[in-house]
Design goal:
By secondary structure, this protein is mainly alpha-helical. The chain contains twelve helices and eight strands. Helix 2 packs antiparallel against helix 3.
């Protein structure tokens, strides 16, 4: 019995040492699929953590009277105070942990080969130490998100800009402004007053000050990736033109060649790419907020009670971003120059898509809000479970456009709108 116990202890010790410092073999599973699935799981975990962190950050900014938009750059926008769980220090730590999470996920699955006297067996292995680092990084992000949630009073757990605006108005943290029932978010710097409906609304590029920075940063990542690939190609052509890793038709696979990990150089852009994809969430969510707002002028109206998970998987842009994250981050571990060009091409398409989305101007007379809470408070004058917006009252000299719990007629393009109860004249634009 003693020999049996010693053998069991020895087996468990060997298994534990392999898990922490070595590799565990996983046979008969394609390495590419495992890597993508792991990146997808990490994306699901980080999105869930990000949802909690974003909700607590919104409430923290609202308590400081600094909340302007429903959607913010979560890791680049901080509440006041270094010790604040939603402050700049822990936001920076969260950004580093997010990068570590995706970098570790991209390197957990790796090749494994065993050679005997007569045979050579190739398989797939899981790097236990990298998997442990991934788990610790995710755990620390959860702890930071939970501490941020406990440090502030949550206004609403809904990700909808309408629920947030209604909560701010209810708690008197936001006051609607009169004479602005036909003013969009880009008119905030003007004197306001009565206005005629416009057939085309401003783009998100002009409405949200951070979107320009996000688009520019995406193109900066594309340029850096292209420069990186050109530099590697130049070095190979000049100093190692006979290298077996020179670009050929066999090296243009979109899946990184993990077999070169043992002899090649590991090139990674996980850090800037992770932050770039995180910033891209701003564009996707702002467009989602605007599309939700424009549903109020449709036949079915807008339902206030919405499922945040359903909003992500039913909105095309959010779904594209969710799928692109694991794919691009899996490409961020590249060994061959041709695969760097693959990554550059994928990033170019990604940047073109989000640039187009940011520059696209919505059509229709409904003023654009893009999730700006003060604009929504000015435009929504009646809250109900289902909201419709349109022409409400004729008046002299101004008409009134607003929201209701029943369908409303379309606004009149030749009328001037100011709001209900207007008694004094105001300049018309």
């Amino acid at each position: 019995m003693d020999d049996v116990h010693v053998g069991l202890v020895r087996k468990y010790w060997i298994a534990l040492s392999r898990l922490l410092t070595g590799r565990q073999r996983v046979d008969e599973r394609p390495m590419e699929i495992l890597a993508l699935v792991l990146n997808l799981i990490v994306t699901l975990c980080t999105e869930s953590i990000g949802f909690v962190h974003d909700i607590s950050l919104r409430s923290a900014l609202a308590s400081e009277c600094r909340l302007r938009f429903n959607t913010n750059l979560r890791l680049l926008t901080a509440a006041r105070g270094w010790c604040n769980p939603n402050g700049i220090l822990l936001n920076g730590i969260s950004a580093v942990l997010l990068i570590i999470s995706y970098s570790s996920a991209s390197l957990v699955v790796c090749p494994d080969s065993q050679t005997t006297l007569n045979t050579s067996e190739e398989g797939v292995a899981i790097a236990g130490l990298r998997l442990l680092i991934l788990g610790i990084a995710l755990l620390l992000q959860v702890m930071i998100a939970l501490s941020g949630m406990r440090a502030v009073k949550i206004l609403t757990w809904s990700s909808s800009p309408f629920d947030l605006t209604a909560a701010l108005v209810h708690h008197t943290q936001l006051t609607p402004t009169t004479f602005r029932c036909m003013r969009c978010v880009s008119d905030l710097d003007t004197d306001g007053g009565p206005a005629r409906p416009s057939e085309i609304q401003p783009a998100a590029w002009d409405a949200h000050p951070s979107i320009r920075k996000v688009v520019i940063s995406l193109w900066g990542i594309v340029a850096a990736c292209a420069g990186w690939a050109a530099l590697v190609m130049y070095i190979w052509d000049k100093y190692d033109s006979m290298s077996p890793n020179a670009p050929t038709t066999q090296t243009w696979s979109f899946i990184p060649d993990f077999l070169t990990l043992q002899s090649g150089i590991i090139y990674r852009v996980s850090g800037p790419l992770t932050l770039g994809l995180h910033c891209s969430e701003l564009i996707a969510n702002v467009i989602r907020d605007e599309r939700q707002w424009r549903c109020t002028s449709g036949k079915k109206g807008l339902r206030m009670a919405t499922n945040p998970v359903k909003m992500i998987f039913t909105h095309p842009i959010c779904l594209v971003l969710f799928i692109a994250k694991p794919f691009l981050l899996n490409l961020s571990v590249v060994m061959l120059n041709a695969q760097i060009w693959n990554l550059c091409t994928a990033l170019f398409i990604f940047a073109c898509f989000f640039t187009f989305v940011a520059l696209r101007r919505p059509r229709g007379p409904q003023p654009a809000a893009y999730g700006h809470v003060q604009t929504l408070a000015n435009l929504v004058d009646e809250w109900s479970p289902v909201i419709w917006r349109g022409h409400k009252d004729d008046g002299i000299p101004y008409c009134h456009a607003g929201t209701s719990d029943h369908p409303l007629p379309d606004v009149k393009m030749d009328c001037v709108y100011a709001g209900s109860g207007v008694e004094s004249l105001a300049p018309v634009s």
